[in-house]
Amino acid sequence: MTDTTSPVGRPIRSFVLRQGRMSIAQQRAYDQLQSVYGITYTPQAIDLNATYQRNAPKILEIGFGMGDATATIAAEHPENDYLGIEVHGPGVGSLLNQIEHRELHNLRIVQHDAVEVLRDMIPDHSLAGVHIFFPDPWHKKRHNKRRLIKPEFVALISQKLAIGGYLHCATDWEDYAIQILQVLSDEPTLINTATDYAPRPDYRPLTKFEQRGIRLGHGVWDIVFTKKA
């Protein structure tokens, strides 16, 4: 999903670029629709209203996987504009296919590292919300340093949020939920919308994987903070 770049030393990637094989439908969508619904990374801020040709709340999703939840949210909330970031080609092809078939004119994709997209392309105070659903937990202790949710990354996200904008994280790993809650609580520009963990907001659909986990008694934790005035 992103590099966790530090001011000094080598960046530690929070993702491993496993492209995998695309299905025929994913490859077709990738080849034919990337130029229509994709936004090419550029090291300069973009005009989001011009990109979507309207003035509407802009919501960013980091690491959308195969894009099922992203497409559902965009379809159910046409009043918002959505920008999804993902590095893996099959997921990009899958979501491009859904954009076409569901006619999601309010959804665009950037296939690039999320830190660079946020840092370089997204204007400060321009986002109404940021979604990070089920980021890679890197559950082995020696790999915890690769986790996406770190203080410097959360500070960057907050910089891009408008006053009152929200950051919504969800994970099914309890130790990662504890870490996320602590990191967000330590960010002075954000405030928790709940005492600790939040109820799942109605806009976040349950995935098949999540439904199966719930049936097996697995926990899911939603953490939702907003930008202070």
UniProtKB/TrEMBL annotation:
Protein's UniProt keywords contain Transferase: yes
Binding site for substrate: K140, D172, T207, K208, F209, E210
Annotated metabolic or biological route of this protein: tRNA modification; N(7)-methylguanine-tRNA biosynthesis
Keyword field: Methyltransferase, S-adenosyl-L-methionine, Transferase, tRNA processing
Chemical reaction(s) catalysed: guanosine(46) in tRNA + S-adenosyl-L-methionine = N(7)-methylguanosine(46) in tRNA + S-adenosyl-L-homocysteine
Classification via Pfam families: Methyltransf_4
Entry superkingdom: Bacteria
GO cellular component: tRNA methyltransferase complex
Region: Interaction with RNA, residue numbers: 142-147
Annotated GO MF terms: tRNA (guanine(46)-N7)-methyltransferase activity
Keyword Methyltransferase found: yes
SUPFAM superfamilies: S-adenosyl-L-methionine-dependent methyltransferases
Similarity section: Belongs to the class I-like SAM-binding methyltransferase superfamily. TrmB family.
Protein name (record): tRNA (guanine-N(7)-)-methyltransferase
Taxonomic source organism: Sulfuriferula nivalis
Lineage per the UniProt record: Bacteria, Pseudomonadati, Pseudomonadota, Betaproteobacteria, Nitrosomonadales
Gene: trmB
